[in-house]
Specification:
By secondary structure, this protein is of the alpha+beta class. It has helices at residues 36-48, 51-58, 62-76, 92-112, 136-147, 160-169, 211-217, 228-239, 253-261, 307-317, and strands at residues 2-4, 10-17, 31-35, 81-82, 89-90, 122-128, 151-157, 174-178, 187-201, 219-223, 245-250, 267-270, 283-286, 293-301. The longest helix is centred in the first third of the chain and has 21 residues, at 92-112.
Amino acid sequence: MQADSPLGRPYDVVVVKKNETNLHLPLKILTLIMRLDHLSSLIAIAEHGSFSAAAAVINLSHSAVSIQMRQLENQVGAQLFDRSTRPPQLTPLGRDYVARARVIITKVDELQRLPTHDRLEGTVSFGFVPTTLQTILPVILTQLQTRHANLQVTARSGFSEELAKDVATGDLDFAFLSASNTPRSDITLDFIANEPLFLIAAPDTPKHLQVDDLLRDQPYIAFSPSTWLGDQIFAGLKARGISFTLSIELDSIDAVENLVAQGFGVSIVPQRLFADDMGNTLRCLAFGGEAESRKLVLASHLHCRRPTLRRTMIDFLRPQKMAKTPPQ
């Protein structure tokens, strides 16, 4: 809630009543009105050991912090600091107030992170891994322009790790990524589709040659192992104990497919959602079972500010999630 300060400016307040027994406050205190910045300063003093150190961290003067603590003690009606020592030390009541203040500040932070503008208008920012630029990106743009004309969409490409970090910090609203082999706790990941992996070879490759034969006898054109998808593919090759000769390493699946179609080698790539069947231009052999697939996910902030838009995209994309299986 807000109140007016003596200077006419609003400030945040927390009201604590005497009958809240878990606070163990003096009974003569009927009602306390505490400024959140006073509580934050109290926490800073506890964490940094002195008024001066706290003042430097929160960008206030020593005297300003001292005045804040005097005001807080006047509101409490009891001393929070033992000023007979240098620097002043927290009293037992002061330490109790620090613990309670941390809870209050945490709850306020959580409230401030709640969605406040879940509207289908304004600007929304997307990230796309390069492997989705010619498949998912145009579909998303078309759908959002058709369904939500008041949305302004911005988009950029990057690798999964980079985009995931930008979603976690709030620099991006959403990102389409390859799922990581390592669980993540800093973002929300919604499953969109399994994109099965295939060994691809030139269309005139003899039919009797199988995956192990082609990897052993043909130059291998790799999708970059510095990406989450490339790392997954190399891990799959290693797990199967397949030997191969690396000839070219690229970060574009389209470039990989083009070189393979022209007979420069073989590769392992996913049949991407919304992409044309690779079997139309390439020989395709399944590489492993369902576990050997690229999991396409939609990343959003843990406290997503556009949950309606997030749900809309998931509901639209999931019915399409079965990537086409190219003929072998």
